[in-house]
Each structure stands twice: as C-alpha cells, then as structure tokens.
Amino acid sequence: MRVRDELAGVFAHEPFADAFGVRGPAGLSPGMLALVTVLQFAENLTGRQAAEAVRDRLSWKYALGRELTEGGFDFTVPARFRARLVEHRMERLVFDRLLEHCRQAGLVGAGGEAEE
Fold first, then answer.
1. How would you write the pLDDT of the chain (116 residues) with one tens digit per residue?
2. 84: which residues sit within 8 A by CB, 6+ positions away?
3. How far apart are CA 82 and CA 79, in angstroms?
4. Cβ partners under 8 Å of residue 67, min gap 6
C-alpha cells in the first residue's frame, strides 16, 4: 500500500509523454509501466512473472491502482516499454525520478548511501 501512496507522483504519465503518443487506442499508462519495471526489478522477476503478478497479486493491483477485476497484460509489454524508453533516450528517467524522490524523503544521502 505504501508503494502507491508514496510513489504515485514519481510514476506519473507526464514525464514519459514524449515517448508515448496519444493517438490510437488507449494503452497502459507509461507511469504504471514504469512502476511495474521497478517492482519487477525489486523482486527479481522475469517478464512473465511480472505480468502474472499484475494479474494475480492484490498488492501489485493496489500499487498500480488497478481494479480487482482487471486482468493483466502480455508479458512482453514491460520489455517493449523499456525498449521505447531507450529508443527515446529516456532510459534513466525511471531511475532518476525514483532516486530524486528518495533523496527528498531523506532515504538516500550524498553519494547514494542509505540514511540511517
């Protein structure tokens, strides 16, 4: 629950707008996919495992702001999201936004060291 409460602003859609257009059918929010990427990394999951977590885990559904009845997505979606970030030279955006949030919250000090 704290992930969504604490990080909602970090993973907003707007910073990714240049890489993800508004034409075509509605897709998954780039902000949500950024959070999926972070959760996937934090839990050392494969793409398939992350897609299953989005579909099956209540904690992930809450963190992502998804309805309980919403299904998941194809396991290739997070990898395609990351490829799109690289294509638009935005590969550090997720990390930099998360790091800045942690610095402002006093969770990370100078040089990236965890605060005691």
1. 677 777 777 877 778 777 776 554 456 788 888 889 989 999 999 999 999 999 999 888 888 888 888 888 889 988 988 898 899 888 888 888 888 888 888 887 766 556 55
2. 19, 20
3. 5
4. 61
Q: Which of 58, 36, 59 is nearest to 48 (CA)?
A: 36
Identify the residue whose tokens are 């030279």: 89
**Residue 33, C-beta contacts closer than 8 angstroms, at least 6 positions apart:** 77, 78, 81
Residue reference for tokens 């999951």: 45
What is the residue whose two structure tokens read 């006093």?
106
